[in-house]
Amino acid sequence: MASKKVCLPCMFVVMLWSSFLPSLHAEELRLCSSDYEPYYGSQMADYGPIIKLAVLAFREEGYDVKVEFLPWNRVLRYGMSGRCDAIAAVWFSKERESWLALTDPIADNQIGLYKRKTDPLVFKDLLDLKEQGIMVGTVRGYANPESFTKAGILTEEVSQDSLNIKKLLSGHLQLVLIDKNLGRHLAAQDGKENDIEWLTLVETTPMYIGITINANPNWEKRRDDFNAGLATLKKKGIFRRLLKEYGVQ
């Protein structure tokens, strides 16, 4: 009797595709997000690896997730008011504990400083930046690293990271505080990834899915269900494979 050959990569694709389909009679969740490529974005396939993992983790526990992209400040307002059930993705912030419950970490962000390669700027540490009066570009509503905030550095806020990279490249800013992968990705969109230089890591920050407390009295169950689903994805090998597929480690 002839043996049958099994295509393991094909099995993984079929399993992943079937897992991404809506479940019958599933509880529907509204997940709000904003563009943060290469981790997640409205123009990415399946909205990128972080949202894809979030959808699959919820799906494992019987939820049907609808994703909506909004400006970040509106995402926060919707989360506080309970107009969305979950947010992808967030960093820890003590100020948000009253309305947002964090899941197990889903990835890490390397938050640090970029400058233009042609800029001769030199500094010893964050306090030195403050003493030199260097303005750093940040994003309104982000939970920046505590060490950065405590240093009292001058900042200029914008509504999204892409604007800071454009200001950096144009010479309007000398430094921007941003995730390492995100900064390189945004510069590459204009073919200028070689025009910026990563200077220093300020903090490695875990990335979480935020479960909004005001959306549903069962928020603790939703958080625990997500964590169980995420653990299942890790056990199946889907978690690591997806991050590798999108080049996010």
Strands, helices and their partners?
Layout lengths: L7 H13 L6 E7 L15 H12 L2 E7 L2 H10 L4 E5 L9 E3 L4 E10 L9 H7 L3 E4 L6 H5 L4 E4 L2 H10 L4 E5 H10 L6 E17 L6 H18 L1 H8 L4
Parallel strand pairs: 1-2, 1-3, 6-7, 6-8
Antiparallel strand pairs: 3-9, 4-9, 5-8, 5-9
Judging by the overall fold, what is the CATH architecture of the largest domain? Answer: 3-Layer(aba) Sandwich
Domain count, please report it. 2
User: Structural class of the secondary structure composition?
Assistant: alpha/beta
Helix-strand pattern, N to C? HEHEHEEEHEHEHEHEHH
Biggest pleated sheet: 9 strands, mixed
Describe this structure as you would to a colleague.
This protein is an alpha/beta fold and 249 residues long. It has two domains: 26-107 and 206-245, 3-Layer(aba) Sandwich (D-Maltodextrin-Binding Protein, domain 2), CATH 3.40.190.10; 109-204, Periplasmic binding protein-like II (D-Maltodextrin-Binding Protein, domain 2, 3-Layer(aba) Sandwich), CATH 3.40.190. Helices cover 37% and strands 25% of the residues. It contains nine helices and nine strands. It has helices at residues 8-20, 49-60, 72-81, 126-132, 146-150, 161-170, 180-189, 219-236, 238-245; strands spanning 27-33, 63-69, 86-90, 100-102, 107-116, 136-139, 155-158, 175-179, 196-212. Strands 1, 2, 3, 4, 5, 6, 7, 8 and 9 form a nine-stranded mixed beta sheet that branches. Strand 6 (136-139), helix 5 and strand 7 (155-158) form a beta-alpha-beta unit. Helix 2 (49-60) crosses helix 8 and helix 6 crosses helix 7. Residues 1-6 and 8-20 have low confidence and may be disordered.
